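May I ask you to comment on the folded chain given beneath this request?
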Amino acid sequence: MSIKNDMVVQFNYTLRDEQGEVLETNEGLDPIAYLHGHDNMMPGVEDAINGKETGEKFSVTLPAALTYGERNEDSEQRVSVKHLQGAKVWKPGMRALINTDQGQRQVTIIKVGKFMATVDINHPLAGRELTFDIEIVDARDATDEEKAHGHAHGKGGHQH
């Protein structure tokens, strides 16, 4: 079955950096599920999957603009240390989660004081050319409810 819009796609992936080092993988875990054609996936990954077949394995190297975006060097903010989630003691270079109006965001600690921290709000992988090794595990037509909600339901997708 060829992947097209309004399909729920399940896939496994391994993400590699410019030197081929593995940064992330879902190997041994449940496949990722998303609703194709509804901006639920990085544009470069979705474009690479478009038209592929169930069972197909492939690699695609993508520029930063099609994955986590370009780095914005003016993306430093000062936040209260009490809003940082993920550790009790913070040091420069550590990653933390903060809650924003748009949901949780991962930040990198630049400098930390007793009450305030300076953080880089760029995604840690912003500005990098990344290679995705992808295996299409399954694909099916989306239900009317999934299309109306704009995301995949069930295992690997959104749970209501």
Remarks:
- The CA atoms of residues 11 and 66 lie 18 Å apart.
